[in-house]
Amino acid sequence: MLGVARDADREAIQKAYRKLARETHPDLNPGDEKAAERFSEVSQAWEVLGDAEKRALYDEFGQVSLESGFDADRAREAREAFGRRFGGGRPGAGPSAEEFQFGDLDDLLGRFFGAEARAGGPGRGGAVRMRGADLEAELELDFGEAVRGGEKRLTLGGPGGEPRNVTVRIPPGVDTGGRLRLPGHGGPGVGGGPAGDLHVLLRVRPHRVFRRKGRDLEFDLPLTVVEAIRGAGIEVPTLDGRVTLRVPPGTNSGTRLRLRGKGVPRPGAGEPGDLYARVEIRVPRGLDEDALKSLETLEGFEDSGIRKELFE
Questions:
Q1: Distance between CA atoms of 35 and 53, rounded to whole angstroms?
Q2: What distance in Å separates the CA atoms of residue 200 and residue 181, rounded to the nearest whole number?
Q3: Structure-derived torsion over alpha carbons of residues 127, 131, 133, 134, reported in degrees to the nearest 10
Q4: Nearest 5°: CA angle at 243, between 242 and 244?
Q5: Which of 35, 273, 284, 289 is buried deepest, with most CB atoms within 10 A?
Q6: What domains can you pick out in the chain, each with its CATH number?
Q7: DSSP string, 82-117
Q8: Helix/strand/coil percentages in the chain, nearest 5
Q9: Closest by alpha carbon to 156, among 165, 169, 148?
């Protein structure tokens, strides 16, 4: 409702709330029913997330924690019981040796949450609807998969230990530490409640040539002494294939030459990053006597104060 990340701190939440409250306040939007409804939503969100105790319960249990008569201790007992039956809610886990015998689901929920929490009151009038638990899983990607995006299949453990496959859509440009949310792919709901979400943590394997720095890429480009002195057109790799990079005459080792727009693409709109070639001049070995003598001519062009700044 507030448009902030799940792990946002109180300051960020308050800032978002104040901005939205100003935009949707009924006094500033007379006769606008949608604005009034939105104002009510963001006010409710702030009431929960602005209170440390309420937020902790909401983070742990979701929307059900806001129900009248909700008991956190009993909810944890219920979750543990369901966890023993369905493998603890962990991806890939099967049922434990100590399986919980549910019997009548309505009676189970009534025992944990109290008859007053039922939709239909005492007796068997209706069961509590509880959102399923959120699950977490890790997904490892090749460098190319992370940069270009695509689809990846993830195998998770289901109820009773049966595996289930989930297709994860990878947006272009993701990196290690990124998270993707798959609504409705988490733990099953209770009493007809919706399933939880699946949160996928991404790990990207390093590339053998490219190093990533945000949206930019960098790699080491070896040059001969002659290429560095004279300049040259050098064939270099990019994510899209080989291109020719122009090396200016007199290029020093450590120089970074840029190929604009050849870096990591941005999800959605926006310019991609750049690709940088970091020059490394490789000195030839095994020179014969004639070759060494020819260096005397080169010495006449060298800067005699090349290391002066080290002592200033």
A1: 29
A2: 6
A3: 170
A4: 135
A5: 273
A6: 10-117 (1.10.287), 135-204 (2.60.260.20), 211-301 (2.60.260.20)
A7: HHHHHTTT-TT----SS------HHHHHHHHH-GGG
A8: 35, 25, 45
A9: 165
Give the pLDDT confidence of 82-135 residue by residue, as tens digits: 655 555 444 444 333 333 333 344 444 444 554 444 444 443 344 567 788 888
SS3 labels along 35-49: HHHHHHHHHHHHHHH
Sequence length of the chain is 312
Cα 200 to chain centroid, rounded: 8
Q: How far apart are CA 97 and CA 94, in angstroms?
A: 10
pLDDT score of 296: 84
Say which range, 28-32, 113-117, 151-155, 199-203, has the weakest mean pLDDT: 113-117
Do 256 and 161 meet the contact criterion of CB atoms below 8 Å apart?
no
pTM of the model: 0.56
Instruction: State which amino acid sits at residue 118.
Output: R
**Mean confidence (pLDDT) of the chain:** 81
Tokens of 105: 């689901």
Both tokens of residue 212?
């990533």
3-state secondary structure at position 179: strand
* Residues in a beta bridge with 115: none
Helix/strand/coil for 147: helix
Distance from chain centroid for Cα 306: 47
Which token pair is 48? 């929960």
Q: What is the pLDDT confidence band of residue 40, given thresholds at 50, 70 and 90? A: confident
The Cα 152–Cα 141 span in angstroms is: 9
Is there a contact between 201 and 136 (Cβ–Cβ < 8 Å)? yes
Instruction: Name which of 306, 311, 238 is nearest 275 in CA terms.
Output: 238
Contact between 173 and 110 (Cβ < 8 Å): no
| C-alpha–C-alpha distance, residues 8 and 17, integer Å | 12
Residue 156 phi/psi, 5° resolution? Answer: -120, 160
Query: Quick one: pLDDT at residue 212?
Result: 94
